[in-house]
Amino acid sequence: MRILIIEDDRDVSSYVRKGLSQAGWNVDHADNGKDGLFLATTEQYDALIVDRMLPGIDGLTVVRTLRASDIDTPALILSALGEVEDRVSGLKAGGDDYLVKPFAFSELMARIEALIRRSRTAGTAPATTLDVADLHLDLLRREVRRGDRKIDLQPREFQLLEFLMRHAGQVVTRTMLLEGVWDYHFDPQTNVIDVHISRLRSKVDKGFDRELLHTVRGAGYRLGD
Fold first, then answer.
1. How far, in whole angstroms, is CA 70 from its chain's centroid?
2. pLDDT for 173-214, tens place per residue?
3. Distance in angstroms (rounded) separating the CA atoms of residues 79 and 44
4. Angle at 40 between CA 34 and CA 45, to 5 degrees
5. I want to staple 81 with a disulfide (CB 3.0 to 4.6 A). Which of 86, 88, 181, 186 is the partner?
């Protein structure tokens, strides 16, 4: 994977570059909009991480200019501006996702990986089944099986499992679950996630030799071996 970070904050850029490099990705960096736009238009990248507030050319203008030039490299916009209208303006400018500072690196990583997957599968027929180890989910039949055992799930449990399976092997944060499963763009300050995770774990893991649904303390949840 080759990623371009356009970010003028030295601490943020160093933090993200280190994390991505340790994950085995090739990372380029520009600390201003002009240089970032030049690299994004002359080099090939799997994804862009673009700070909204940049010296020279701001991040939204960078992304807007790329889209006007028919460059569709997936772009994640970073910003300290987190109001709904701020996120909307970022997406309307051509951003594919929007992450508010401060953020957890695991969430940034998961979002970038999701953008790259969507970009690579664009135009292909969507998968109708999902598989993680011996866990099988059929989207058309709305059926779930683990090995030869059928698992009955409530509609919300099915949605939750589908979301986790689409992010298999990744740490899925509570924010990602609230937005992706419940369509909440705020924290309702309830234990709704904990309750549903507990119910789902009792159905997909209980009675089996190995657990697939793991709690990652202080970060979220992960589905996989």
1. 24
2. 988 898 889 888 777 888 999 999 999 999 999 999 999 999
3. 24
4. 150
5. 86
Give yes or no: residues 141 and 92 share one domain. Answer: no
pTM here is 0.55
Task: State whether 116 and 160 are in the same domain.
Answer: no
Instruction: Answer yes or no: do 71 and 96 share one domain.
Output: yes
Q: What percent of the chain has pLDDT over 90?
A: 63
User: String of b and e for 181-200 (b: at least 16 CB within 10 Å)?
Assistant: beeeeeeeeeebbeebbeeb
From 91, 121, 151, the end of a domain falls on 121
175-179 — which CB contacts under 8 Å span 24+ positions? 175/107, 176/107, 176/110, 176/220, 177/220, 177/221
Tell which residue, 98, 111, 224, 86, has the closest CA to residue 161. 224
Torsion angle of C-alpha atoms 18, 25, 113, 134, degrees rounded to 10: -110
Q: What is the pLDDT of residues 215-224, one digit of tens each?
A: 999 889 999 9
Shared-domain flag, residues 208 and 185: yes
Q: How far is CA 196 from each of CA 110, 147, 200, rounded to the nearest angstrom?
A: 21, 22, 6
Domain hosting residue 86, numbered range = 2-121
Q: Hey, what amino acid is at 161?
A: L
For the chain, the domain total comes to 2
Neighbouring C-beta atoms of residue 214, cutoff 10 Å: 15
How large is the angle between the packed helices 84-92 and 59-68, nearest 10 degrees? 30
